[in-house]
C-alpha cells in the first residue's frame, strides 16, 4: 500500500471512530434532557481553523512555530449546561534539520509531520443571552507520522494525551453560532521524533469557526 493510500485510510478510520462515538451517544442519550435550554438544540457540529503553538522547543526547532490546523468537532447536550465532546483535529507541518556529522556535511534535510487527534471529553457552558462561554477537558487519541523526504524514511506511532479547552459561542440564530476557542493539549511520547526522543507533541491552539445546531 503506497503512502497516499495509507494517509487516506488513516483519516477515514479516525473520522469513522468519531462518528461512531457520536452515534452511540445519540442513540443512548436521555430524551428528557434534550431541550432543557430553549435556545439550544441538542446536537452541534463545528468547523474551525486556526494556529497551533507547539509546547516543546525540540519541535519548534524542527518545524517552527504557529502552525495552521483544521478541526471538526461534535457536541451532544446531556443536560442544561453539560455536553459530551468529540471530533477530529488535523495538523500538518513542513520543516528541516541539519545532521552535524562529517558524512552528512551539515546539509539541510526536509521533514514532514502530520498528526490526527480524536478528543473525547466533557464541556460545561453557562449561557448569558446569546453569549455562551464554555470550559472543558478530556483525553485524546493521537496518530502521528514524520517523514524524511530525501531518504524516504518515515516514522509513525500513536499515543494517548489529554486536553483542556475554553472559549465562547455567539449565537446569531437558534441554529448557528460563531465560535472562538483556545485549547491546551499534552501528548507525551518517548518516540516523538527520529531526531529527538521524549518529545511532547502538545501545545496551545487558537481557532475560530462556525457551529451548526440541529
What would you say this structure looks like, in words?
With 214 residues, the protein is an alpha+beta fold. It has a single domain, classed as Porin (Beta Barrel). It has two helices and eight strands. It has helices spanning 3-28, 57-63, and strands spanning 43-54, 67-77, 82-98, 108-125, 131-148, 153-171, 176-186, 203-213. An eight-stranded antiparallel β-barrel has the order 1-2-3-4-5-6-7-8. Strand 2 and strand 3 form a beta hairpin. The longest helix is centred in the N-terminal third of the chain and has 26 residues, at 3-28. The chain starts with a helix and ends with a strand. Residues 26-36 have low confidence and may be disordered.
Structure keywords:
2 helices, elongated, 8-stranded antiparallel barrel, alpha+beta, 214 residues
The CATH topology assignment is Porin
Tell me how many strands there are: 8
CATH architecture: Beta Barrel
CATH class: Mainly Beta
Short summary:
The protein is of the alpha+beta class and 214 residues long.
Which SSEs are present, and which pair or pack?
Layout: H1 3-28, E1 43-54, H2 57-63, E2 67-77, E3 82-98, E4 108-125, E5 131-148, E6 153-171, E7 176-186, E8 203-213
Antiparallel strand pairs: 1-2, 1-8, 2-3, 3-4, 4-5, 5-6, 6-7, 7-8
Amino acid at each position: 500500500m503506497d503512502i497516499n493510500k495509507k494517509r487516506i485510510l488513516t483519516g477515514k478510520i479516525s473520522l469513522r471512530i468519531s462518528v461512531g462515538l457520536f452515534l452511540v451517544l445519540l442513540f443512548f442519550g436521555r430524551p428528557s434532557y434534550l431541550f432543557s435550554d430553549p435556545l439550544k438544540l441538542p446536537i452541534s457540529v463545528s468547523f474551525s481553523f486556526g494556529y497551533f503553538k507547539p509546547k516543546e522547543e525540540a519541535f519548534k526547532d524542527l518545524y517552527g512555530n504557529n502552525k495552521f490546523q483544521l478541526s471538526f468537532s461534535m457536541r451532544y447536550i446531556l443536560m442544561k449546561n453539560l455536553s459530551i465532546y468529540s471530533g477530529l483535529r488535523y495538523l500538518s507541518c513542513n520543516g528541516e534539520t541539519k545532521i552535524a556529522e562529517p558524512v552528512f556535511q551539515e546539509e539541510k534535510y526536509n521533514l514532514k509531520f502530520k498528526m490526527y487527534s480524536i478528543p473525547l471529553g466533557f464541556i460545561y457552558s453557562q449561557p448569558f443571552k446569546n453569549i455562551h462561554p464554555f470550559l472543558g477537558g478530556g483525553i485524546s487519541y493521537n496518530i502521528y507520522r514524520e517523514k524524511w523526504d530525501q531518504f524516504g524514511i518515515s516514522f509513525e506511532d500513536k499515543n494517548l494525551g489529554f486536553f483542556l479547552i475554553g472559549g465562547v459561542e455567539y449565537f446569531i440564530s437558534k441554529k448557528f453560532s460563531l465560535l472562538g476557542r483556545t485549547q491546551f493539549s499534552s501528548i507525551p511520547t518517548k518516540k516523538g521524533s527520529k531526531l529527538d526522543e521524549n518529545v511532547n507533541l502538545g501545545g496551545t491552539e487558537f481557532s475560530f469557526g462556525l457551529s451548526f445546531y440541529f
